[in-house]
């Protein structure tokens, strides 16, 4: 069949029509631009660039809380409950405790990005409750706002340039890492969260390891053979929900967490610093690359490492880790997995209780947070058998209650 020949069409676009069409297109594109700008502005305003909803202004230490209904930051009006508000706010942000608080007149601190004020509803004020839930918008008739100084955490004081498949860490890179020694031998890892408190795993304190005088906390070094600092322990508090301590036949490692109260306080330095806890209700993102550290075995049937090891591993979703080829529904909501499906990099024996830390900037400054505690796993670095960690964000209130309840006691305690 012969090809059909196209019939030329006459052009009807005059210069005037072209101008009108061009103007219309520009107006249309401008409309799209304005709409996009409005959407982006709204999203940025409501999400506030990923910042946590409670902040301490670095310039004047003013406490600010985000009003999600009004879409703006508000300063907190000073009240007779300043001390409780300061402690709750610092804990919520993952800073463990406040160091000081005061009130300042509005004229001396200025707005600094905030607009309006929150007042405290004293009837709702209690530990374990988000600070936003106990505040309401007000005019702050006193004209004074609350300033708070929280304990710093999650930051190295030195510039920094066993874990299976990891590498040697440098001194001062992970200053919150400690070694828990029983009769002088390394048994577990742990993480400094304040000058008197360490977080570790409950399973480190089986019945045969409960004589406090035989425990010491080794800090300030990356080598097990260096002098370092050995500090005695005054109290150990492990979670009463850790089932293997109730019945050794129970195959459930939920609630594998403990805190240690030191007999003498730590002296912070370039090599000894606390790590932050997760902020209250902070989520751990699947696929996020974080770091696990420890002196454990460098292979399953190997020897413990003398030098602190570090390894970067991604968080694995619980849905994947509970799959038939992984851990088949053994991962509860108080745990998470991290590692590679093909294996090769993992925590191992001797790393138990040690830190799994992730870096973020939700408090404006980049900080490391203790998102996990090395808990358990099948073998070390095996395919589809990643390390399993205690999810620290699930124990925010438990940690806070244990620190308040047992700071004046001596012994080994079980607490729910």
Describe the structure.
The chain has 416 residues and is an alpha+beta fold. Helices cover 15% and strands 31% of the residues. The chain is built from five helices and 23 strands. It has helices at residues 15-47, 82-92, 106-109, 318-321, 396-406; strands at residues 54-56, 63-67, 72-76, 98-105, 117-120, 135-138, 144-150, 163-164, 167-168, 177-182, 185-192, 197-200, 215-219, 229-239, 258-262, 289-294, 309-316, 335-338, 346-347, 355-363, 365-376, 387-391, 411-415. The strands form five sheets. A six-stranded antiparallel beta barrel has the order 16-17-18-22-21-20. The longest helix has 33 residues, at 15-47. Residues 1-48 have low confidence and may be disordered.
Question: What's the total number of strands?
Answer: 23
Which range best describes the helical content: under 10%, 10-25%, 25-40%, 40-55%, 55-70% or over 70%? 10-25%
- Widest sheet, order of strands: 16-17-18-22-21-20
Strand count, sense and closure of the main sheet?
6 strands, antiparallel, barrel
Order of helices and strands: HEEEHEHEEEEEEEEEEEEEHEEEEEHE
Find the structural class using helix and strand composition.
alpha+beta
